[in-house]
Specification:
6-stranded parallel β-sheet, alpha/beta, globular, 2 domains, 9-stranded mixed β-sheet, binds adenosine-5'-diphosphate, Rossmann fold, 18 helices
């Protein structure tokens, strides 16, 4: 194989091949942005079943690659696709990844998640070895890929292959840690010394995310505010201690938005396209959405609110469900798209039955409807209890749908709160239904002032969260752990012609 990547991304999701949330969006765009900037990048991700039919036609490059896990040793096949010129490698082992869902069913997590993702990390390392020259940077993401940092940390001691490889670990959501029983630690192949409170041990359980924090050369998270918040007991999910110990190697880099995918000017899912200069298409989108969701046509002249996200307490969906009767009294429409806790799904369905003219609830995951709601609603709701970065509010800003959001994490870093001459949305302090309702009331009052609303929309649509700026910060982060940019750029020019 002729391609020798210098920066290897390792992640469990990548849009458009797989997606359950923001992680996929990030992996679908950050590596590609670096690739377009001239860096020598690849992505390694699992080969979930449906990827086989992807338009990017992955093809088999390695059959039966030995992985060295578990005992007795099993192997993986490796597929490769070119994603706009950048290589993406897929680790294939059907029994692990070719399933209906990625991590869990409605009954709970897959029982073998630990094994699946230990295997993934070890297969990713086996693949890097097969490619022949060690990457300079291994950039892994979230608990599924966290162990790669621990493996490299210990293997460096006796395997010269990894000697010059630096690792960076990005936390997209600290609440998902990948905690398993100690028995699985023994199977993982990590040395005994990793089992301690500064390593992968966490109250007698095997914590994969903690391993990433403990053993990566640099730890990042997806917004500056969240990087500060996770050092506190309120947001640290029990890991604030180890994060504090690593705080000099911890930084927050704000995610960006992929404006090739999320751009109302060329969004292929929309009834009509529109731009900040001419919002006529947005009305057509609203009409289309209202018809699609069988809401009252009167809502064309009333504000319609949108919510897209996991129906979990993190996202504050319970706060929204609580105030829906109040919103309906104000003759406001609500469109919710999401899936998650059965209890919230059921309450949403009850509200849809109670208020069919005003409330639409779509339980499920559909990319097309996410775009239609961004475009066809007037106000976007994000009452999250915590939000590492949040992408949907960045998209809603671009779609002329000002957000109402809690003052946490990336929401604080991306929304300029009203009232302010630069405001782009509405922020409220406490995660309570009362505070949410008060913020909503402010938004609804401003909505009646058509000029002021249009200005708010225009400012939001012009806000620029494109990836290039964030990608440059990642390059600086790589440099801080020894990545030699100039050398790599020159080399890359030579290599890219042979890809
Ligand atoms: P998180 O990663 O915490 O789930 P983000 O706001 O960072 O939240 O990213 C969520 C991404 O997932 C966005 O692209 C959003 O449009 C998408 N998304 C979330 N829920 C759904 C759904 N039910 N259907 C379609 N897309 C969804």
């Amino acid at each position: 194989m002729d391609f020798k990547p210098e920066i290897c991304f390792v992640a469990s999701e990548m849009y458009p091949f797989s997606k359950t949330g923001g992680l996929a969006d990030v992996i679908g765009v950050l590596p590609l942005t670096l690739h377009k900037m001239g860096y020598n990048v690849c992505v390694i991700t699992p080969f979930y079943g449906r990827i086989a039919t992807s338009e990017f036609s992955p093809h088999l490059v390695y059959e039966d690659m030995k992985v060295g896990y578990p005992w007795p040793e099993i192997s993986a096949d490796v597929f490769r696709a070119k994603f706009y010129g950048m290589p993406v490698y897929f680790i294939d082992r059907g029994e692990y990844y070719d399933r209906r869902y990625y991590y869990c069913t409605y009954k709970g997590d897959y029982f073998d998640n630990c094994e699946r993702f230990i295997f993934f990390c070890r297969a990713a390392m086996a693949l890097m070895k097969k490619m022949g020259s060690p990457p300079k940077i291994v950039h892994s993401h979230d608990w599924h890929a966290a162990l790669i940092n621990s493996y490299i940390y210990y293997q460096k001691r006796h395997d010269p292959f990894w000697e010059d490889t630096a690792t960076i670990f990005t936390i997209h959501n600290l609440a998902f840690q990948g905690r398993f029983s100690v028995r699985l630690f023994w199977d993982s192949g990590l040395p005994y010394e990793a089992w301690n409170m500064d390593g992968v041990e966490f109250y007698d359980s095997f914590n994969l995310l903690k391993g990433g924090i403990a053993h990566a050369d640099l730890v990042t998270t997806v917004s500056p505010s969240y990087a500060g918040e996770i050092l506190t007991p309120e947001f640290g999910c029990g890991l604030e201690g180890i994060l504090q110990k690593r705080s000099t190697d911890l930084m927050g880099i704000l995610n960006g938005a992929d404006y090739n995918v999320w751009n109302p000017g060329k969004d292929k899912y929309l009834e009509a396209n529109y731009t900040a200069k001419n919002l006529e298409g947005k009305f057509a989108c609203k009409k289309d959405l209202i018809q699609n969701l069988c809401l009252s046509s009167r809502l064309m002249h009333r504000p319609v609110l949108g919510f897209i996200g996991r129906l979990r307490s993190q996202k504050g969906i319970d706060l929204l469900l609580e105030i829906i009767p109040e919103l309906v009294k104000k003759d406001v429409g609500v469109a919710v798209l999401g899936e998650g806790d059965a209890e919230y799904e059921a309450s949403l369905m009850n509200l849809v039955e109670l208020y069919p003219d005003h409330v639409a609830g779509l339980v499920g995951y559909t990319e097309e409807m996410a775009h239609k709601i961004q475009a066809g609603t007037d106000i976007f709701l994000m009452p999250s209890r915590y939000e590492p970065c949040g992408l949907t509010q960045m998209y809603s800003l671009r779609y002329g749908t000002p957000p109402v959001a809690t003052a946490v994490g990336g929401l604080k870093d991306t929304i300029v709160p009203y009232p302010n001459e630069k405001s782009t949305g509405f922020i409220f302090e406490n995660s309570t239904s009362n505070d949410l309702l008060q913020a909503m009331e402010k938004a609804l009052a401003l909505f009646e002032d058509k000029d002021a609303w249009a200005k708010l929309q225009a400012r939001g649509m012009k806000a620029d969260f494109s990836w290039k700026r964030s990608a440059e910060l990642y390059i600086k982060a790589y440099q801080s752990i020894g990545y030699d940019q100039i050398d790599s750029k020159n080399k890359d020019k030579k290599t890219s012609s042979s890809i």
